[in-house]
Fold these 3 entries.
Entry 1:
Amino acid sequence: MKSQLQRFISFAFAAADLLIEVGPGGEIRFAIGAASTLTDRRDDELIGRDWLDLFDPADRKAVRGLAATLGPQGRSGPLEVRMAPAGLGIGEPARRASLSACRLAGPQEWLSCVLTALPAAGETGADPGAGLVGIEDFVEAASRAGGAGANMTLVEAPGLLGLAQSDPAMCNTLVQRISTLLRNSAVDGNAAARLGEARFGVTHRGGDSILRQGLADITEEGARNGIDLGLSAHDMALDSGGLGQDELLQAVRFAVNRFSTQGPAAALPGSMTQAFEQMVDTAIRRMNDFAEVIREEKFDLSFQPIVELATGALHHFEVLARFKDGSSPFEKVQFAEEIGVIEKFDFAVCTRSISAMRSRDRERGAGPLRLAVNLSGQSLENAVFIRLLLALLDENRDLAGRLSLEITESARLRDLARADQVIQQVRRRGFAVYLDDFGAGAASFQYLQALAIDGVKIDGSYIRRIGGSRRDDTLLRGLARLCGDLEIRTVGEMVETAAQSDFLRGIGVTLGQGWLFGKATPVPVWTPVSTPKQLEPVAPSRLRGRRQGAVESWS
């Protein structure tokens, strides 16, 4: 009776779907729960079977390893596993479960295991990479783990890229296998990450033989299905080598960012000390290059139209920076923020934009030019930049109503009260202020609460998903309604189809920007699109099958 009570207590405590007890020889001695859900067999049919038969052959080594680590009254897990494919049709997703094990006190050295069903990869709402964190969380976890015996392994599987299009189900299966292996190898919950569509990272301790063998097994699994994953792994020692904690964090971020953008071809270092040295050398070179870009104005301006959705008329242009060396505007601006010189670049763009407006005013017969200029949130926290910006606006008060500023979330505002003071000084001079990329970051609604502004630009990720799901469309309606109630103008960016434009207009979004209305051009010229039809309900079918375009913005 006591043993029965122990069983049910452990089962209830774990909130599991299936409890099994395993004898010394690996035979199942007891089973209770939703066995058929996970195994296609009743509880009583499991008695006497080898417990490893319950699991996918590729996962049995990990299961044995989990059991081998248990001493008397020891506990281990959870370990994500795939159940044996008995009874599954070809091509159906494998059933996944979370496995935990312990040895209960008592005369019998039985292994007590609980299994909890997990959503199968490919099911609605299931993410084959669920549980993997993003770059920043991974960088922080890796830097905290720095020390003797800690390693970071960066994994690339380029074969996943084509597979995502040709066989999404198999791609999900392999991503799930990689994700499970990395999570089971990681030092903590944030130490396994997806760093790109086909790039991953994990921080682990001790020998990496289990990780290496797991990657080899996944490669073999892909080969059995006729897939060459091209899987490779690069190891880096996390021994700080005399670096301070802040320096170690910077070195890890440098190495991870290089891998996430370039992969193994980035000539990755083998240790954090080497990474830090590479980072310093690269930073000095880039700082000198960027200083020259600003000093000699080695950048051009492009202009993308923003139109009134209700009438189709041009409202204004957004100013976009384009670098003459062809480098990525996003990377240039991100680097400028990292090294603390973004305000110099922002001021250079502002002055060039005003010059463009003055040049247009001098053209005979040309209409007045209305522009929006991007400003990094980091610039608004620089006292010298604020003084120069306000002086520039004072000198050009006649442009009030024609020149507006868009504050981007590329760098998060830290002092919202101070930022709002600056914004109100700008608005009192008659210049409108917008929040760019609204909804993309966790801080967006905090900004909306703390900052009095004229408008927001809804992030293009929302626009791309129009018609994809009722939930996303409802969320977008809510954003538009919230801004309408606050009497804040709204701009929908990355609009590429008439259906998207109709939807935005229908929910009250005021302005639209995107390839439907025109791409960015070297001069601010615009050819009107056809006038929108009278507002009418938009069929869901019209909102699907859209092409995903590039983001026409430097932020």
Entry 2:
Amino acid sequence: MSFLNGIAASSGIAIAKAYRLVEPDLSFEKKTIKDSMEEIARLHTALAASKSELEVIRDNALKKLGEDKAAIFDAHLLVLSDPELIHPIENTMKNELVNAEYALKETADMFVKMFEQMENEYMKERAADIRDVTKRVLSHLLGVQMANPSLIAEEVIIIAEDLTPSDTAQLNRQFVKGFATDIGGRTSHSAIMARSLEIPAVVGTKESTEVIQNGDLLIVDGVRGLVHINPTPEVVAKYEEELNSHKIQKLEWAKLVNEKTFTADQFFVELAANIGTPDDLEGVINNGGEGIGLYRTEFLYMGRSQLPTEEEQFESYKTVLEGMSGKPVIVRTLDIGGDKKLPYLSLPEELNPFLGFRAIRLCLEQQDMFRTQLRALLRASSYGNLKIMFPMIATLDEFRQAKSILEDEKQKLVSKGEKVGEKIEVGIMVEIPSTAVLADQFAKEVDFFSIGTNDLIQYSMAADRMNERVSYLYQPYNPAILRLIKMVIDAAHQEGKWAGMCGEMAGDEIAIPLLLGLGLDEFSMSATSILKARSQLRTLNKKEMEKLVAEALKMGTAEEVVHAVKKF
């Protein structure tokens, strides 16, 4: 038995066989053949196998992700049966007496190059379809399995270099019991999705794809950040015992699902959930969420070939607002950029995308896209308790401009007789240090703050949160971070406003006592963390936590703060 060390990204224990979600080796050599008909038969066998595979993937996408996502695979199926592509491949084999792999790649590359040079966006997208389909057919010609998470039908642990948000969104919790990746950090989007799906995860192992083979028995320890490879029966038994203890603990937490969140000295705080799609509503309700503190709307825009329409967005927002039955729902406007990209938006490559043209900066420049989202939100606002939040706000001018556009769209809808919610609170995410420092001025104009600690910490510490080599600098308990949070909360309260937190720190058991002492009004976290946090908060006395925080703010290191919390 051996094991890998990594970063504990999503708590829990998973025991299952490995499933490598990695790009297969599709290299081949050009060969001269004698029988072209035999090669053509091989090609058609590979085409048929690819078609069967894509039909399963399309059906799965239709059930889980809707018609729009399934349409991507309809396009791939059309390419597979297109005689304009198939006949030239056959002719190449007949005329040049070359193997099917070579004829397929040469022909496909010719079409890809031709489509990429066209000015029509629709035709450019067909290049990507041909490229994807070619990979699939080539894999069948070479007898190499192409990994696809939506085809998994047995209990597995995913092994990958990294997982994109769309990869993670496709994971079926029934079969995917955990995952381990080579790169990433605790606040990478795949890790955040893993926590919302309650899938144990260890990231930043550096070499999981090198040392783990398909079928290896694995234990992913998302508590300690370990991945055990082919463990002994004794180690398996020890972890199975731990799993059983965790199940018993969860049953105890479940008793709090309908309880309000009060501290030991009867101070009320709101426990809300972070979600990515309307499908996450069930988890919020089942875990006793008192609201939604962050609806990440970017998932509406991802995994598709064009922008979502106003009507599509309206239906999604309406579903969430109605589903929460009057409880608050904070919707964050489009936050694309950094590690989240949209292939259909022609954005320039940037040396440092996390500090670049993203989030509100992108929306203020591409106002047609922004206004469409705001109209959909305003139309949905009458179906529940909507609050709108702008991300990545760095200056008061940005907030004023964004709010002005919102007000403009509101007036246009009202003048047409459209029903719009009477009182929609408008706030900002505080994730840039300059905004935290100037919180006293922002507090005069916003209705609320929601502190996005994932980015606030990386910007304050000048440490990329996706880079495992500097992961030691992701320090939520550092006194510098605590002081910035205090500035924001104090500024909000000074103006009679409220302050919440939607970063991962809000659900952290070490951070919760500190945040309570700092006066945080709303804690928003992965839905699966809510009951555990509620159980913890019921044992804490707010007045005592204020004393703890007063001491912590005088300390010099994160380690000293952690020690003080554990001692207290």
Entry 3:
Amino acid sequence: MTRRLSLAGQLLALQVVIICVVLVGVTAVTVAQSTRRAQEVEGRRALVVAETLANAQATREAMAAGAVRYLRVAAEVARSNSDSASVVVAGADRTVLATADPEELGARFDVGDSTVLTGRSWTGERPLDGDPAAGAMAPVYADDGRILGFVSVQRPYPSIMDGLASAAPNLLTYLGVASVIGIGGSLLVARRVKRQTLGLEPPEIAGLVEHRDAMLHGIREGVVGLDLQGRVTLINDEAIRLLGTPGNALGRTLTDLGVGEELRDALLSSDVARDRAVASGGRVLVLNRLPIASRGEPIGSVTTLRDRTELLELRRELDLTRHVTDTLRAQAHEFDNRLHTIAGLIELGEADEAVRFVHRVSSSRSEFSQVVAEAVRDPSIAALLIAKASQAAELGVDLRIAPDSALPALGDGLSTDVATVVGNLIDNAMDAASSAPQRWVEVGLGVVDGEVDVVVRDSGPGVPAGMEREIFRRGVSTKGGTASGERGIGLSLVHLVCTRRGGDVTATSVGGSVFTARLPADDETLDGALVDA
């Protein structure tokens, strides 16, 4: 197996290839320019030779006298001295008088597009042994201004190798400078990239990205990454499912994605969150949020999401079971006390007083039960209130039903939610009222504008100012927490049940605490409830 080049080696190899490609281009351009300059130089040299011979006094006199022999000697001397390929002297009628090629003597010279017969010198390109060559023609004048003839000179163009040889010194300079700059730059870039990638090679970086994506989308918890502007930079499949966001969430804000206000505030909070419960879209999500930084600079946050809806349902059922158990215990304790009282009266021979005691207890119980039965038609909630009365009596708290209460029978799901809210609010109220000089708790139930309203008042000290919303967070309590951390659970459960149904719960302090919970119900549930009522 061949060993792959490192990142520095790959950059260096790429830079060398680029340098070679650039040098080839520079070489081609340089040779082309050098050849063009050489062609221009050869044309000017040919013109100088032609004009020098044509303007010589001896040449003009020889042409005027018809001294062909002198012209031939002069033409050959000029050709050899100038290293030209061809020097031709022709008369005004284009008859060749002197040339190095005997076959051309006496023939008519083809001037092509030359302007020499009009009395003007000319330079251009003419064929020489089948190849293009530099050509020049100059007229020969008589003393009286007549054109006696002309001189034509041809010089071969330098070859490509000649042009390459002439450009070689410059090319070597370019190659040396480019190599030094390119290799040095490649090494610097490689070092910088290496430093920015923490010394990892491209295959290692690709492997890390693949592993991260596999882990990110494989875990059962939702993961959401946000930058400082609140845009999503990271989100996995589970988070998309829990938040109900579209798949193309990257780069978009939580508002654009339609995330609820409570959940959005929790995700954008600047604090560290540990196991914070938030209701969203009918689910109960537990959040753990942690700000992240890179090289000491904050860059955003990462939040994990867990679905705890099923655990909430189980907790609610256990809470209802706890209410029933506490109520049965209170009733058993109350019945024991009353049985002991009756037994004592009988032992003392106070049979009449025992009978009157039984009537008083029965009358008090029947009166409260009758009030509950008239105000609350839902059997589950009515039974819960009657049971809570025994628990309140054990604590020495007077449990009342508000005079304007009127709650019809509800559907199973709504009835269970209302029972959870009523039970927890009454427990919280009795706990607060048990330490007050006047101990009472009043419960109001009714249906207003398609919502079940639950209002629980107590004679306790009330909710501290500024904690009206904070008190519904899990673990927050106005009383000292227990060793097991049982405080701050009931009200958070009430808040989750209400918000899951699209309702709300609020707390105020007016002569004690006042908790108002609203639980919206669908039309079918309310229509059935009103018919039963």
